[in-house]
Amino acid sequence: ESQLREIAAHFGITLDKEQLMSRCPKCNAAAFRLVPKDSVRERVSERIFEIVEEFFECGGCLKVFWMVRKG
């Protein structure tokens, strides 16, 4: 984290925690929407489907994402 701050300071980049993970890594779209769990059943592994309650879909490429708690 300190390296990221150092790089941002060096290049004059403003970091906003709300914006850090706000774009799709596949298509760079900034539009995610919460989708019904059943709509992703065939698009994620069975284990992920069992343990995750909320799924999000990219509005650009339709890739499915979910949040994971660390710890």
From TrEMBL:
<dbReference type="InterPro" id="IPR002782">
    <property type="entry name" value="Mut7-C_RNAse_dom"/>
</dbReference>
<feature type="domain" description="Mut7-C RNAse">
    <location>
        <begin position="1"/>
        <end position="67"/>
    </location>
</feature>
<protein>
    <recommendedName>
        <fullName>Mut7-C RNAse domain-containing protein</fullName>
    </recommendedName>
</protein>
<dbReference type="Pfam" id="PF01927">
    <property type="entry name" value="Mut7-C"/>
</dbReference>
